[in-house]
Amino acid sequence: TLPPGRYENTTIDLTAAPGLGALKVSTLKTAPIDGQKPGTSGLRKKTAVFTEGKYLHNFVQATFDALRSTGADLECQTLLIGGDGRYYNDVAINIITKIALANGVRRVWVAKDGLASTPAVSALIREGGPQWKKVFGAFILTASHNPGGPNEDFGIKYNCENGGPAPEKLTNAIYKNTTTITSIKMCAECPDVDPSVLGETVIEARDGSRRVSVEVVDGVAAHVDLLRTVFDLGAIKALLDRPDFSICFDAMHGVTGPYAKALFCDVLGQPASCLINAVPKDDFGGHHADPNLTYAVDLTKKMGVDRLGQPVGSSQGVPSLGAASDGDGDRNMILGTQFFVTPSDSLAILAAHADCIPFFAAQGGIKAVARSMPTSGAVDRVAQAKNLALFETPTGWKFFGNLMDSKALFGGTDYTPFLCGEESFGTGSDHVREKDGLWAVLAWLQILAAHNAPGKPLVTVESIVKDHWATYGRNYYCRYDYEGVDKPKAQAMFAAMTSATSSNTGRVVQGSKIATADVFEYLDPVDGSISKNQGIRFLMEDGSRVIFRLSGTAGSGATVRMYIEKYVPPTGALHEVCANVVGDLVKAALELSSLVKFTGMESPTVIT
Ligand code: G6P
Ligand code: ZN
After folding, report:
1. Ligand 1 site, residue 427, Cβ cutoff 6 A
2. Which UniProt keywords apply (predicted)?
3. Which of 410, 445, 472 is where one domain is finished?
4. What is the pTM of this model?
């Protein structure tokens, strides 16, 4: 019997097709394809890899096989599919839909126009629909900030019913299945559903034995509605309406354009001119849709900062707040007038002022903060001052999700509301289980609104950051990326550093004494799982840190990340140029790693 519900709009009856018609399950022969191990955030490869043969089919079938073995209820619940709009998004949505239906999924939600930001997917999963429409998981078609297009990257990741990325246990099971797969189930004769039209299409088997539904849902409205409950948009509107305040949001031709339009223009009444690059493009306009000082050039130009975040030109006409999001809308960069806020500082400042945000205030204030290991220790000082629980996790948002969902496992201690962030331009809270670019922008606006009484001179982003440093001290921080490194060379460099960890302890390099050198390993306090090899750390006696990691999101080749941090207390020099302060540590890092020798790269490709 069918679950109760609405089966409206269209009913497709393929009476011409034999037997089960549109719902006939074809079994396609296949063979394992190498390299389907998901990285930090899903499977990302060159688009041509995905479009060839059954690459995508294999991964999707392997996911259903893994889900079935965990006892997921595919038949009575809903699967959501959406993506960041990059090239191949539309084709992939139809392939996944047909494999899903053949694997017993009864209801598929497709995001309108195929577009759903990563945080919106998380919101949609968590919100679900009327009881029988509970969403058990989602495929998000994204390679995040990696460039898109036929010659660039495509990606897919699976999120679970808590709205967060699949835990390693599941991604390992998926990967294992990809190494043994022999067949794919697919309703190959099922018609494509047009994702540009909202509403439900019911597809019936010709013999009446089965009835499924594919519904196009509005991902934008779901997310905006959630954000309305988290913030006081009235206060934010009053700030935005001040004659001395203006905002510029750069969607970088990624998925957030329609979200930003709905939020800033339709809800908050701002002119369309406050948005740039707000029309999604399947190649992100040929750019890296990555909100940082190197790639978000349209925004940095507008905000009057150079590639190192230093002011350039005049401040005349520069907006009060500038922000950008990445391809799939989970990352954010925040700028004030001619002023760059590092993601690590942004996290610390949001933690310090969390009470300004109604979502937190209503629950008695935040109780816990979490940061990834390479993220600076700025937030640690806020946690200490405010007596918040602090977690240091490996890189990857999924580790935060585990902590947020852990209530009962901490002996009844409820750590929500929860705030987390990463140096990689990710910030968010337990309103969803992904980082959330627009959330971060609204969080900054809410804090600014709280500091700006009507009729008083404007309290700026820069002054909020500087006040923070004056209270807590400043963690000077930068990250060097070496992209496109030959993988074996990068691995050799890490192997050499790993074997030298104990002999490096106590050594003095470029004036810094190494207190500890180790390989970061994480014991998840919730599920007891251990994540090894999460980066090499050199912790200096004065609290400075030098960290090396291999990126888990590089589409091809290896990306070496080198993270440098130096803490200066409130009594120290707080307004220096970062590059000058960390210069010796950079030299130390290059010496400790022999990076130039191993990789042949004289200088980084990106500095953030
Ligand atoms: C994605 C993940 C983040 C992670 C980031 C950096 O954006 O969602 O959680 O911090 O990638 O990953 P990488 O391994 O490239 O440094
Ligand atoms: Zn992203």
Report:
1. no
2. Isomerase, Magnesium, Metal-binding, Nucleotidyltransferase, Phosphoprotein, Transferase
3. 472
4. 0.93
Q: Is residue 144 annotated as part of the catalytic site, yes or no?
A: yes
How many angstroms is it from 444 CA to the middle of ligand 2? 19
User: How far apart are the C-alpha atoms of 417 and 401, rounded to whole Å?
Assistant: 12
Cβ–ligand 1 distance for 424 under 6 Å, the answer: yes
Write out pLDDT tens, residues 557-584: 899 999 999 999 999 999 999 999 999 9
492 within some domain: yes
- 435 and 428 in contact (C-beta within 8 Å)? yes
DSSP state of 132: G
Could you give the ipTM of this predicted complex? 0.96
- Same-domain pairing of 500 and 550: yes
| Ligand 1 pocket member 41 (CB < 6 A) | yes
* 554 alpha carbon – ligand 1 mean position (Å): 9
Alpha carbon of 477 to those of 122, 186, 216, 565, 607: distances in Å? 30, 50, 44, 4, 11
Considering the domain architecture, whether residues 231 and 205 belong to the same structural domain is answered as: no
Residue 300 and residue 429 in one domain? yes
The helix (H) or strand (E) run that includes residue 474 is: strand 474-485
Does residue 5 lie within any of the structural domains? Answer: no
Domain hosting residue 244, numbered range: 223-472
* Among 176, 193, 217, residue at a domain's last position: 217
**396 close to ligand 1 (CB < 6 Angstrom):** yes
Indicate whether 242 and 211 sit together in one domain.
no
Within a domain: 3: no
Instruction: Tell me which of 117, 144, 512, 544 is the catalytic residue.
Output: 144
Residue in 546, 551, 504, 577 with CA at minimum distance from that of residue 146:
551
Q: How far is the CA of 441 from the centre of ligand 2 (A)?
A: 15
- Same domain membership, residue 251 and residue 197: no
Please check whether residue 1 lies inside any domain of the structure.
no
